[in-house]
Amino acid sequence: MGGPRGRGVGGVNPSTAFARVLVDELLRGGVTDAVLAPGSRSAPVALALAAAERAGRLRLHVRIDERTAAFLALGLAKASGRPVPVLTTSGTAAAHLHAAVLEADASGVPLLALTADRPPELRSTGANQTIEQAGLYGGAVRWSADVGVPEAGREAEQNRYWRSLVAKALITATGALSGDPGPVQLNLALRDPLMPGGEDERALDGPWAGRPGGAAWTAAGAPTSASSGPSPFRQRTLVVAGDGDLLAGRVAAEQADASGWPVIAEPSSGAWSADGVRAGALLLGAPEWLAERRPERVVVVGRPTLSRPIAALLADPRVEVETVHRGPRWPDAGRSATRVAAGFPGGGPGEGGTVDLGWLREWRSASDRVGAAVDAVIDARPELTAARAARDVVAALPSGALLVVGSSTPIRDVDRLAAPRADLTVLANRGVAGIDGTMSTAIGAALGHGGPAVALMGDLTFLHDLTGLLTGEGEPVPDLTVVVPDNDGGGIFAQLEPGEDRYAADYRRVFGTPHGRDLVAVARGLGWAASLVTTPDELRDAVVLGGPRVVVMRTDQRAEAQLARELRAAAAAALA
Question: Residue 222: its pLDDT value, please?
Fold first, then answer.
């Protein structure tokens, strides 16, 4: 394959391959006209557009002035209602599109600005014809993306990325989900060689292939339903619910149950319930079991972020991924969604579908076996572990309680190990998954909830927001119990690659980051009741005492990592 200047599959250089995929996906998404002004950096895309015109797939318009080209594209888009791309080279050429972009913004016209650019290593160096183009049009565009530089050796991965990016640009520009059409910018960083090396213009195939039948990579529209044919109900469908709108998650869980589809729900999804699949990440992490029960379709609600096995499933090209999301910024980290819709797919016998109860029973049976195996491993250890705390805190909460879970290990432990409960409200800061501000978030949520509340967070998360414990005179205090498994540092890293033995020399200082503080004394110093618990019974009793209080339990990073490995092994054995 060579480096970024080498040749990819079929001898096609990366910039040429990118350009051909880009244009192919534009055409699949409904583009019929394109406009370009000549330039060197934009050459790969210009040649791909010209080839598409020769093949009778596109009408190409060429102008020598970028401002004229942009307003020509604006007129084409206004008249047709279809998105029209306008291509420029780098530098001031991209700036000349700005007036037309502003008009498209105010008029709601689906103009697509394709601005070729220098690669990152040439920016801010004084390189010829280089300006800061990413985000050049500010708030005038509905969306802007600085597209990653094409490279050899990553063909299939980049094909998904490029095609999903183009599909998203077109859906956003047309306002298919938002009802707010307008301009979009794709900034295209391209490295030499920019000209093709004599390759033929054959149809894109192999790792560069698009969806079968000329379909767009991701389509927008009404969700598939029984009324559109029986195929969605013959498919083996799994619902994956991630963090997001709690009400949407609850609706998804109800409709999935009516359709006979198993649900793997993250705790803060709103779809977390006893009818769902417990320890879904452990099921999907058992390759032999999954190989025989791989779903044909996955319906994604919310934004799943907790599990690598779920991410791998969503990126599997053998699985059709349908995303349910209101608005133009839908989650698709695997770049694999075939469809995005604002509503959940219809289902159930009342709508003409055939519910496959055997499929649902199989997943629930596996869930029960894994749950029993997980419980046996946890209960076999007499000491109080973070894993046990995640399971037991959830089980001990009274009905109607609020649970706020910190990022890093606690939310993953709850997701993998706790038995889901629909009678709890579970919140977590999973937007960007930071640990900062978690204490203040929990206090605010508890005050808003107005009833019993528990927060489960790691020691670094607790220390990161200590000022959240400070309550001014006369300020309301929440009924909040904060449970802190204290492993003296960043314990999640012991379960990830940095925790491997080969990195042991630097692990403690740069990943483990021991703090050495007595967290009970810290909490008391800030005015909160606080205690240390050492047994499972003490923990369960403390959870139901009420707050405000802090409950600390001491754990060991390496022991927790070993326990995580044992839990995965036990789950795999239960499914074998």
Answer: 62
Predicted pLDDT of residue 235: 78
pLDDT-derived band at 227, boundaries 50, 70, 90? very low
- Give me the residue label for tokens 């998804």: 252
Q: What is the pLDDT of residue 494?
A: 79
Mean pLDDT, residues 465-479:
86
Burial 138-164 (b: 16+ CB within 10 A, else e): eebbbbbbbbbbbbbebbeebbbbbbb
DSSP character string of 301-347: ESB--S-HHHHHHHT-TTSEEEEE-SSS----TTS-EEEEESSPPP-
pLDDT digits (tens, 9 = 90+) for 527-553: 999 999 999 999 999 999 988 999 999
CB 47 within 8 Å of CB 196: yes
26-60: buried (b, 16+ CB within 10 Å) or exposed (e) per residue?
A: bbbbebebbbbbbbebbbbbbbbbbbbeeeebbeb
pTM value is 0.82
Buried b (16+ CB within 10 A) or exposed e, 196-217: beeeeeeebeebbebeeeeebb
Supply φ then ψ for residue 35, to 5 degrees. -125, 140
**pLDDT (0 to 100) of residue 97:** 93
